[in-house]
Write a structure and sequence with these properties.
The structure holds 2 protein chains of 2 kinds. Chain A has 9 helices and 7 strands; from the N terminus they run H-E-E-H-E-H-H-E-H-H-E-H-E-H-H-E. By secondary structure, chain A is α/β, with parallel strands linked by helices. By secondary structure, chain B is of the alpha/beta class. Chain B is built from 11 helices and 16 strands. The chains are: A alpha/beta, B alpha/beta. Chains A and B meet through strand 1, strand 2, helix 2 and helix 4 of A and helix 3, helix 4 and strand 10 of B.
Chain lengths: 249, 356
Amino acid sequence: MRELFGRPACLTDEPFLYCPGCSHGIAHRLVAEAIDRLGIRGRTVCVSSIGCSVRCWRNFDLDVVQGAHGRGLAVATGLKRAQPDKVIFTYQGDGDLAAIGMGETIHAAARGEAITVIFINNAVFGATGGQLAPTTLVGQVTSTYPGGRDPSWVGWPIRVAELLAQLPATAYIAREALTTPQRVLRARRAVQLAFEVQIKGQGFALVELLAACPPNLKLDPVQALNWVETKMIPHYPLGQLKPAKGAAR
Amino acid sequence: MQEPTRRVLMKGNEAIGEAAIRAGCRFYFGYPITPQNELLEYMASHLPAAGGVFLQSESELAGISMLYGAAAAGKRAMVSSSSPGISLMQEGISYLASAELPALIVNISRGGPGLGRIAPAQSDYLQATKGGGHGDYNILVLAPASVQEMADLTVLAFELADAYRVPAMVLGDGIVGQMMEPVALPPPVTELPPKPWAATGCEGRPRNLILSAPYTDAELVELNRRLQRKYAAIRAREQRAECVLMDDAELGIVAFGIAARLALAAADNLRERGYRVGVIRPVTLWPFPETAFRAYPAVRAYLTVEMNEGQMVQDVRLAVNGAVPVHFLGQGGGYVPPVDAIEEQALAILEGGLAR
């Protein structure tokens, strides 16, 4: 009998502990599928971040190193420099990567560390209960700015992918969304490409995945996906901000 | 005929670098700060030739996390900094302790608080020996008093860190860091201990997890219990102190690092004048060598001499536990206690009848 669909080999049988409608489960699966397809499970190390995905080690059946909040790309730098033949990836949310960890992020990208970054942007601090993130949209209501994000007070949301794409040592920067089956298939290709770029030694690769956080948006799962489609994508355009060398665009 | 030991003239900071390379350290991360820049630069110019990786980090926060990554990969690795930079590293040191990762942190300390100034000081004693960051943990702290010890204690710090899976610190100051002395360099280490727990990819084995946060409350309690059992074992086995002229001493001067050499000069001078004075020099600041204080029943008072406002004196008082008075001489902000000031205060205690 031929298996048409199943759990990827590098996901454990632990259930996801994420909220209904959360996009982390899909993102985890895309990462696991890419590692399986490339046959690199035995030489891959995951660096987890702090936030909702702090326990992604329960789900990724891989060697996992848990770094401090925001320091994922510094930890990954140490891991990669210590064992350049291994595949190192970080899995980070927007608070971790773009607020407290922006320094580590920019400098790892500027050095061109051969690391794959899976960046989950859901425009809010999830684990702590819906506070303003660097990626929170203008006017978006959060628990720390209940009147909505006012740019004259807290500034504008940061477009991380565009920011990093300018740096000469980044090899592949893309943004996709986890809202519809079609977009998930595009995201799947982008995630795999971000690992291939590392395996080829081309440099720093980041895929930003626009994700839904229904409880903190105070929306049901379908409404939350619709919110990502209609509010986030206009501010965070999808596609390859910096295409990888030798790959299909 | 025996070969004479070959000694070379080096700065203390450089001796740490050379000893680290000989101890098998191949990964160094650091950010410039005075008075430890010679170490950063020594590693920049010597580590690549030894097949290692030197990386100047964008901050101390990043540097200590790079160390965390290299240590998680099972490598001998180090960072170095000075007081304000070490404060920034406390986050990562707490994480290293929680994840039970062996690593070396060098603090060539300077006067504080805040930015302070670059004059030598011992004002980081409490930060170093009481954990320094958040949570219940300790790190090994070794305090060299000479360029020779800068080399020897660097090797020992790596060995103990690996043996117990704890972070270790070499705590020096601007004097031992900058001064030059002859040093007999340690032989290169040819074999490092295996680290089957390292995150190297799970090929052919169950996966390895390097975690700072356990999954449940009960597991965090268990982690704390395990750490405390390990710390108890370190306290029982790894206390080190140099005790000089102490056998018949009535007054024991207690000092670490460069201050201990000044204390010893004062003790020598007082001995010449017939006073029974000795020196206890803690070499491990954590674990504090408290057993040394039980070995000399003739002692009727202690004088603790420090280049700070009175930090180690707290541990001396705990070790003595009220049995005899413990006096203090010291000052923060870059003060180096003159030998005659130590003699003067020692004499006042001796001639005051070693008052209780």
